[in-house]
Amino acid sequence: MMPSMGKTLIILGVILIVIGLAFTYGPKIPWLGKLPGDISIKKDNFSFYFPITTSIIISIILTILFTIFRK
């Protein structure tokens, strides 16, 4: 049971590092969140933003990475 707990802690640590890097360097990537297909609606007292294209690209990249590191 201990080796799986150790592996889980390592994976959680890597995930936290990736999230930390995303928060640190994410705003410095100019195209992130401004791709064609990202929905942005701005009205007088209302704004709505849904980065659907950005979400799909990040999902594809994470799927590829998890598939590579799974083996």
Mean pLDDT: 83
The proportion of strand residues reads 5-15%
Distance between the termini: 20 Å
* Strands in their spatial order, largest beta sheet: 1-2
Note the overall shape.
elongated
Instruction: Characterize the main sheet.
Output: 2 strands, antiparallel
Describe the structure.
With 71 residues, the protein is mainly α. The protein has two helices and two strands, in the order αββα. A hairpin with a 4-residue loop joins strand 1 (39-42) and strand 2 (47-50). The longest helix has 24 residues, at 2-25. The two termini are 20 Å apart. The mean pLDDT is 83.
Task: Give a brief rundown of this model.
With 71 residues, this protein is mainly α. The protein contains two helices and two strands, in the order αββα. It folds into two domains: 1-29; 31-71.
Name its key features:
71 residues, two-stranded antiparallel sheet, 2 strands, elongated
Layout: helices, strands, pairs:
Blueprint: H1 2-25, E1 39-42, E2 47-50, H2 52-70
Antiparallel strand pairs: 1-2
